[in-house]
Specification:
The complex is a heterodimer of chains A (about 270) and B (about 400).
Chain A (H helix, E strand, L loop, with lengths): L3 H4 L3 E4 L3 E6 L20 E5 L21 H15 L4 E6 L1 H12 L4 E7 L17 H13 L1 H8 L10 H7 L8 H12 L14 E7 L6 H10 L3 E9 L3 H4 L1 H13 L2
Parallel strand pairs in A: 2-3, 2-4, 4-5, 5-6, 6-7
Antiparallel strand pairs in A: 1-3
Chain B lengths: L1 H8 L4 E6 L4 E4 L1 H7 L3 H4 L10 H18 L1 E10 L5 E13 L2 E10 L1 H82 L7 H31 L6 E4 H16 L4 E6 L3 E4 L1 H17 L7 E13 L10 E11 L29 H11 L3 E7 L3 E9 L8
Parallel strand pairs in B: 7-9
Antiparallel strand pairs in B: 1-2, 1-5, 3-4, 4-5, 6-8, 9-10, 10-12, 11-12
Helix pairs in contact in B: 5-6, 6-9, 7-8, 8-9
The chains are: A alpha/beta (about 270), B alpha+beta (about 400).
Organism (chain A): Dyadobacter luticola
Pfam family, one (chain A): Abhydrolase_6
GO molecular function (chain A): hydrolase activity
């Protein structure tokens, strides 16, 4: 039996009985939530984790077959829920994790109570009847860049490795990685994310959902938030003042306030 | 101040300052020259205006988070998009500082035209080498593993085929040899009773009632076990089935056969999947029978059956193998008496049954599990005492070709 806690670098804080499970998106790991979860730690048990292949997870557990598909990431979430014996938890997912959380909630509804979706998108690529924000060529360019710019990515992705010839033992400690560290894994995660189409799954989601839509988010633009709102039967849509794709970093107070409001609703 | 700005403008590298919202507060002449914009076209605009689409994604998913989390980044490679559409490869170092009440993100940017060429060569050489190495090693590993797995699989297939045949044969013999005497006992017992061959006394009546009950229970068990064995011997071909039609048909059969009253059945979603029609009808018949047997007295029994599509891994026992394919997920929920969740895996065991179940043989769910597993699916139960039970069945939409 794999040690799920080690594999997914699960960290637990807080004193509440009800659990909030925070799931990071494509890019950086659980550190992304550091301005959000402390606001809830007095009322909730906080569970943070990194997907296999991200942050400080056990990269040896990475399986390209499994993580080629967002359902593989959903399995990480479900296995963590199972290991913690969760029931009626609040799932908070950023970006692609919103979809991962939905998939998990469809498969095992009892683990979850409500879903908070930060900058979600069920499909990134435009087609005649849907606005996702990207043309297929844009995504292909991204994947191509990730292929070509291998060293750039590798440099980019492991910025924390500092050379410290005087004290080599320090280097290891300094390599704590906030973001994706392996270019090959990051490339696959990008592909699983940006080529996904989960529009048909929306109808199966039964839990109350909060859609936190940023103003001026190029990755998940407003029409996408509206599309989700009209296709998720039990959802509320909030258009935030925060801009960009990471309101939990750029506007933590606003993000916390909306989540709090949503959790207070019955 | 003016002098400082002049110094910045003349730096031999680009220099840009933007805020939390990504709005450009300052950009020096060198960078303006690189991207071909005038200063007033960019001030107050989003920094993303200077990036290609893929660099924008990069910026949103990695660069901005990293700058915020670590306050500093170095040697980041990005592609700028000049006003005339040209792509400019650059290297960036950035820092986040508090300027007054706002966070200021300050970056220096240099073009890396030359460096990129070396890198391109390096990358190609490295990729070629890596690829060859990986291909070679993984091919070798794969062929070794395939050989081993095939051998194992072959042995398993032989074993399974033999076991199955024995099992069916054993079942048939057992059932015939068991059923025949049971039938005879039952027959002669009835006859003895009807011909009043046994003297009627109060003591006898009680005894006879007990024997009668045992005989009919024995017949029920024998019948159930025979059905269980029969499913394994089923020769019915696989066809396309519709989840909602099967449930409705099974419910009609059940109502007609038993005359059960005060039942509401709601069927939602209609998903096609491959399977053997008759056994699946049996499965839903058993689920309905179970729900009725464990219904709450005094209120209508409500059964909700919902079918949706999900993707599941087709590999169930091979570790580390993943292939996600379309599956139908059927959730069968009732408002019955439920059971303690701790017994969730116990209830589908062969001949296991709950204490409060007096009439059952303990075969219903085992039968269902057998049918589902025969179709490469999974079945699980989630229940809460006093609230109800949900049986979840997940089946592949397309059945694999049979081995034998």
């Amino acid at each position: 039996m794999t040690d799920i806690f080690k594999r997914n670098n699960v960290n637990i804080f807080g004193t509440g009985s009800k659990t909030m499970l925070f799931a990071h998106g494509f890019g950086c790991g659980q550190q992304m939530w550091r301005n959000i979860w402390p606001a809830f730690q007095d009322e909730y048990r906080i569970v943070l984790f990194d997907y296999v292949g991200s942050g400080n997870s056990d990269a040896n557990a990475y399986n390209p077959e499994r993580y080629r598909n967002l359902n593989g990431y959903a399995e990480d979430v479900l296995e963590i829920c199972e290991a913690l014996n969760l029931k009626d938890a609040i799932f908070v997912g950023h970006s692609v994790s919103s979809i991962v959380g939905m998939l998990a909630s469809i498969k095992e509804p009892a683990y979850f109570d409500k879903l908070v979706l930060v900058g979600p998108s069920p499909r990134y690529i435009n087609n005649p009847e849907y606005v996702g924000g990207f043309e297929r060529a844009d995504i292909e360019e991204l994947l191509d860049t990730m292929d070509k710019n291998y060293i750039g990515w590798a440099n980019f992705l492991a910025p924390a490795i500092m050379q410290n010839p005087d004290q080599p033992e320090l280097a290891a400690e300094l390599t704590e990685s906030f973001c994706s560290t392996d270019p090959v894994i990051a490339r696959q995660f990008a592909e699983a994310t940006f080529l996904s189409d989960n529009r048909q799954d929306l109808a199966y989601v039964n839990h109350p959902c909060l859609i936190l839509q940023c103003s001026d988010d190029m990755i998940a633009p407003l029409p996408v938030g509206e599309y989700l709102h009209s296709n998720l039967t039990n959802s509320s849509l909030v258009v935030m003042q925060a801009t960009g794709h990471c309101p939990h970093l750029s506007a933590p107070q606003e993000t916390v306030a909306y989540i709090r409001q949503f959790l207070a609703q019955d | 101040m003016e002098q400082a700005e002049q110094l910045l403008d003349n730096l031999p590298c680009g220099y840009i300052i933007f805020n939390d919202r990504g709005e450009i507060n300052y950009i020096n002449q060198t960078l303006l020259h690189i991207v071909g914009y005038a200063s007033d076209e960019l001030l107050g605009q989003k920094v993303e205006k200077l990036l290609t689409v893929s660099s924008r994604i990069f910026y949103q998913t990695h660069l901005f988070p990293l700058l915020t989390l670590k306050s500093e980044v170095t040697e980041i490679f990005l592609t700028l998009k000049a006003k005339n559409g040209t792509h400019v490869p650059v290297m960036l170092n950035g820092k986040r500082t508090l300027a007054g009440t706002e966070q200021a993100y300050t970056c220096v940017i240099s073009t890396v035209w030359e460096r990129q060429k070396y890198e391109q060569q390096l990358i190609e050489a490295r990729q070629g080498y890596q690829q060859a190495l990986e291909d070679n090693q993984s091919l070798k590993d794969l062929s070794d593993r395939l050989q081993q797995e095939q051998h194992k699989l072959d042995q398993k297939l032989v074993e399974v085929a033999r076991t199955k045949q024995e099992y069916v044969q054993l079942g048939k013999v057992l059932m015939h040899d068991l059923q025949e005497p049971v039938r005879k006992i039952s027959f002669y017992f009835e006859r003895a009773l009807s011909k009043k061959l046994v003297p009627t006394s109060a003591e006898n009546a009680e005894l006879l009632a007990k024997i009668g009950k045992s005989v009919s229970r024995l017949r029920l068990v024998a019948d159930s076990v025979q059905r269980f064995v029969a499913i394994e011997d089923e020769k019915e071909p696989v066809t396309e089935l519709w989840s909602d039609q099967l449930v409705t048909a099974a419910a009609n059969d059940f109502m007609t056969a038993t005359g059960t009253q005060d039942v509401q059945l709601h069927v939602g979603g209609s998903i096609a999947f491959q399977g053997r029609a008759a056994v699946f009808k049996t499965l839903f018949y058993e689920l309905i029978a179970n729900a009725v047997r464990f219904r709450k007295q005094g209120i209508p029994l409500i059964m909700n059956v919902r079918s949706i599509t999900v993707q599941e891994n087709v590999f169930q026992s091979t570790v580390d193998k993943y292939l996600y394919s379309d599956h139908v997920q059927i959730e069968f929920t009732d408002n019955g008496i439920g059971f303690d969740q701790r017994f969730a895996s116990y209830v589908s065991g062969l001949f296991n049954k709950m204490k409060n179940d007096e009439e059952g043989v303990g075969l219903g769910l085992a039968l269902c599990e057998q049918i589902v597993v025969r179709h490469y699916g999974k079945i699980s139960a989630r229940s809460a005492e006093g609230v109800g039970t949900t049986i979840k069945i997940v089946l592949p939409v397309v059945q694999p070709k049979p081995f034998f």
